[in-house]
Amino acid sequence: MLLAPTGRAAKVFSANSQGHPAYTIHRKIYRHNPDASTGGYSLPVPAENKLRDAVFIVDEASMIGTADEHGSNLLDDLMTFVFSGDNCRLILVGDTAQLPPVGAERSPAMNPEVLRSMGLKVSTATLTETARQAADSGILFNATRLRKVMTAISRGAAGDTVPVPRLKPGSDVVVVEGPELPDVMMSAYDNSAAGPADTILITRSNRRATEYNAAIRAQVLYREEELTQGDMLIVSKNHYFPRRTHGVDFIANGDIVTVSKVYGTEVAFGHRFADVRIELPSPDDPEKPVSFDMKILLDSLADTAPMMSREQADAFYAELISDNGPYASLDPAARVWAARKNEYWNALNVKYAYAVTCHKAQGGQWANVFVDLAYIPEDALGLALYRWLYTAVTRARTKLFLIAPPEALVGN
Fold it and tell me: Can you say whether residue 340 is alpha, beta or left, with left for phi > 0 and alpha for psi between -120 and 50 degrees?
């Protein structure tokens, strides 16, 4: 059984597993039952592992944290699920040099001591043969050098001062200055069989991602309307369906969907929405997309916050169940039921997917990766930057573009 933390990571895993399908962890270890208290569907609850003699292989395990937006402990729930089966085993595959989950200093799933504290017998191994890039790849050279320095730092062999990370340009590692960026990105889109879908720009904050997305749509894709057919969007909050839709019971935070049709837009409850048809990889066959109609929250597209704030969500929900809301004729309990099923309340939270933060890019790989290195402050040139750079660099399969790097970061 092949698993990964996100839909994109599962798609990559499936594409490299010789025909064995991979699934998101959530899809296999949780279930979502109808529940009156939550308006037609439940929050994730642990499922039952009915397999026996099964080996679970989890890729990109460094992304697995100990808490999600619902307060669930994903690592604990994964362990409970796997080892509740009859004679099941678990292999966690991940990269300890990558960024840990948000809010953590080290990936708990890749820490043997954390796993042993759960009462598990743990053995470890280090993979040394690279499969993503050629042996003479400049991408691989830079990733390896960053990793070696991080290892030296962790062992105290780098001295008291963390050295400034260095990236070496080459045939597949190219420095791009700001004015060149639109033309270089357009060339990357044109020369890729998958177009924009196989190119990503990685930056350091949601605000910069929002700015880059606006610039890419205007100066590279020449899209003037806010949302058009062909736009790629990244989901910014897990979305759970009341029932399975074309084999899909939820859309995960970090999944990338494509807009195939825009029906119209409207304003309701103080927010803007669009009715669209979207495509996303099928959970049963990642190479065959499924499509269905959905309502999306337009306000989130250009918002610099990762998702609607708690205050905004509370105000939205209060309006739904208020005496002046659409369910005023119902008793309070029925209002809650109706509001939780409301199509506007359940609109998909999305952002443009041409530029993303490094955490959002984890679990994916692209032929062309642009890394934003402009305006890095001197006090940021520490170990955290090494992890960030290493994670960004290792997203690239074919070509790595360094956007406006400081002189200190580039050279032999």
Answer: alpha
